[in-house]
Amino acid sequence: MSKISATQAAQQGVAVPSSAEQSAIRKISLRLVPFVGLMFFINFLDRTAISFAGPNGMNTDLALTVAQFGLASGIFFIGYILLEVPSNLALHRFGARKWLARIMVSWGIVSLLFTWVSSVQELYILRFLLGIAEAGFFPGAILFLSLWVPARYRSKILALFYLAQPMTTVIGAPLAAWLIEQHGLFGLSGWRVMFLGVSIPAIVVGIITWFYLVDRPQDAKWLNEGEKRWLVGELESEHAAKQHSKHPSVRTVLFNKRVWVLCLIYFGFIYGLYALAFFLPTIISGFQQQFGTTFNVLEKGLITAIPYLPAAIVMHFWSRDATRRGCRTWHIAIPALTDAISIPLALYMESPAATIAVITVTACSIFSALPNFWTLPTQFLTGASAAAAIALINTIGNVAGFSAGYITGAVRGVTGTYVLPMLIVGGLMLLSAILMVLLSRSGQESQAASVTQEH
After folding, report:
1. Quick one: pLDDT at residue 245?
2. Pick from 217, 435, 440, 430: nearest CA to 341
3. Percent above pLDDT 70 for the chain
4. How does it sit in the membrane (predicted)?
5. Do 28 and 20 form a contact (C-beta atoms < 8 A)?
């Protein structure tokens, strides 16, 4: 920043970042976020690979009904939920480097076994085990990145990290389709080749993680002494401020009303996210019957990817605005309300192009809200209580992941259409928007009461 602009900023009461601050955040953005984002990319691709396999041979080969496919999609989250909180507390105790590496290698091995699944019972068992193996990864990654940057930068850092999720479909859907087209490779069906191809990277990157990640800024050789002093000083100041304020312990997190409201808000977002992720390829496959259009496997993969590229772009600029202004209630509530309208609306479109256009709005809204949502728990929690709360919120979210797969499949099987399942999604997104507004008002009232008592 030039001297003139710095002077103007000072006159306007805007803090001017020091060179150490700017370089430290830049290095974290370049060194840590892309790598953890790559881990997240592989994570989301492996857990949603079943959505590509189902309509491209797996459902036929294993004789799956729509309800069985929905259950297989959702049962992953039962195993995930069982070990979510314990896994995140273990990460807090043993360090992210070792624990995240262990998680990746574990889920990579289980995912690889899908290559040879031969019955619906085996599919259920492997999906359950995959959930156990992946437990703790996502909240662990969120906690890890949150511990590396001060609060005012978390929206930016988490948005960069979250880019991996929509990009999983932008890149992963065509990749999965290409792998499926390699039918006969190693004597395997195309969908089995796909499972093989998306599993190996998890094992390889998991091993690299052990050597690449650093648990604390103090130990980062790629930060100079000035950058370390600034970063450690900022993080310790924030930690001390939270220690002086009243915040829940690990035990009382389970009884904290604010944490549970965050759980319910997140439930709505994740229900919508996985209803879209698990069933969008199936919906696209149904375009032939609905609209009389036919697509090959690669074309279906490319169409599946269409909503997610705009979603990544919109998420970047929405989170950038949240970083500039400070994350506001409407940064989360408006996307939730948009989802509540667009999800059911997509089913009433009269062409594949119009359907995908509305689904694109849905994807943009979901991904715009999520990184901003994750700045909320660490605003009032720290240490082990933050680890427990993030894990608890993500656990409830993963109940939504199970519910989205199972309920959507079951209701679709009974009604024969996706209308009612998508109306359920829209209703939950509307509830998330309302709860976000109520939570914000409750927080403002609490702060006002606190100020009044101090005076």
Report:
1. 54
2. 430
3. 90
4. Multi-pass membrane protein
5. no
Q: How far apart are CA 290 and CA 288, in angstroms?
A: 6
pLDDT digits (tens, 9 = 90+) for 212-236: 999 888 889 999 999 999 998 988 8
Other CB atoms within 10 Å distance of the CB of residue 83: 19
Alpha-carbon dihedral sign for residues 257, 95, 319, 8: positive
pLDDT < 50 stretches in the chain: 1-14, 445, 447-455
pLDDT of res. 454: 43
One-letter identity of residue 438: L
Residues whose CB falls within 8 Å of the CB of residue 442, separated by 6 or more in sequence, listed in order: 258
Distances (CA, A) of 299 to 92, 173, 289, 440: 43, 10, 16, 44
Residue with tokens 């997140």: 266
The answer to whether residue 248 sits within a structural domain is: yes
- Of 126, 127, 138, 164, nearest to 38 (Cα)? 164
Compute the mean pLDDT over every residue in the chain, rounded to the nearest whole number. 85
Residue at 8 is within a domain:
no
> CB count, 10 Å around CB of 385?
21
Q: Are 174 and 302 in contact (CB under 8 A)?
A: yes
Provide the domain count of the chain: 1
The pLDDT of residue 397? 80
Integer Cα distance of 40 and 26 in angstroms: 20
Mapped onto helix, strand or coil, the DSSP state of residue 176 is helix
Range of the domain at 328: 18-232+244-443
Q: What is the DSSP letter of 16?
A: P
Instruction: Read off φ and ψ for residue 80, nearest 5 degrees.
Output: -60, -45
In single-letter form, the type of residue at position 235 comes to L
CATH number at residue 188: 1.20.1250.20
**Residue 249 confidence (pLDDT):** 60
Q: How far apart are CA 278 and CA 289, in angstroms?
A: 19
